[in-house]
Amino acid sequence: MRLLRxxxxxxxxxxxxxxxxxxxxxxxxxxxxxxxxxxxxHAADAQRQDTATLAAMxxxxxxxxxxxxxxxxxxxxxxxxxxxxxxxxxxxxxDQDGAVIQAWTSNWDRPEAWLFDFHHHLFNGDAGEIVxxxxxxxxxxxxxxxxxLWWPTRRVFHLRVWPRTxxxxxxxxxxxxxxxxxxxxxxxxxxxxxxxxxxxxSEALRAPFSSTATMAKASTxxxxxxxxxxxxxxxxxxxxxxxxxxxxxEVRIITLPAKAGGLIQIRMRQQAEWLPNGRSMVWFxxxxxxxxxxxxxxxxxxxxxxxxxxxxxxxxxxxxxxxRLVMTVSGLALTLLGALSVVTFWGNPSGRPRRASAAMTRSxxxxxxxxxx
Length: 373
Hints:
It comes from Caulobacter vibrioides. Residues 351-373 are annotated as: Disordered. Keywords: Membrane, Transmembrane, Transmembrane helix. This is Peptidase. The protein has 15 helices and 8 strands. It is of the alpha+beta class. Strands 4-3-2-1-5-6-7-8 form an 8-stranded antiparallel beta sheet, with helices on one face. α4 crosses α5 (125-150). The longest helix is centred in the first third of the chain and has 28 residues, at 2-29.
């Protein structure tokens, strides 16, 4: 137990601040749509999914000289389309008729963009994504070892939002009780975050349900060569075919070919899908607008369907306001636990009790004696 306590303390002391920042940024990102509705024109507009509107918008946006690579369409909670360009950080918000409302060329120009870049990539692209996933796994170990350390002290459990006293013993008492209480939420947040960032971890979690080879084969795009993109492409024909393939589904993302010979791709979200942009796909020839292939997300292997739950659960894209508040609590709890672990560790890295008698007098002998070891 002593070794476990030492490992837990050092883990918290070394990565606690990063976990705290990830928790805080995650809690803020849960409310990104509300922030945009309050600050960006047309963000509160009602969602429009009729074929005529979508086709006219796509024709207008993709006809511009500096056309985007893809369009993420408005949702029920956010009335803006997001345009993404070939340049990594260049993007724009447009209304549902295709008129650009705000554009930027750097993530630092938009608070929600740089906040997401930090939370998902730690400002370091793919390398930061891997580090973030590793932090998620370390956080999981932090929670599990914390539960083991808390168990012998469970009889003195107290529910407090903030430590009763800011002594080392008082903070440790609060830290363990709060961590134990919110452990299920923290495990959910950390596990789904790590699974999204680390492919091998995601595959390991789904291995009991579907093999890696089966999931990879199911997600492989069609090997069909398309023609050059037509200047006068019939977008009504394209959108109509997509809707006919998946009746009742939302059109979520329209993507142009990345290179010569590629296909137009439309992502759809069926009612049963939790993923906000769905995983049902339809592909079209860029010259004729003819549908050449499709993939139903509901027919994917079980492991793939379980993997598609990671993002909506992690980012609170299901469950409405109640679940968004739950995940906000999870993020803020991680912030508090991580920050206070750093304070207690660097205030006394050795872990040896200092002025134990004074601390016991202030906080109570029975409780603080257990948390000063």
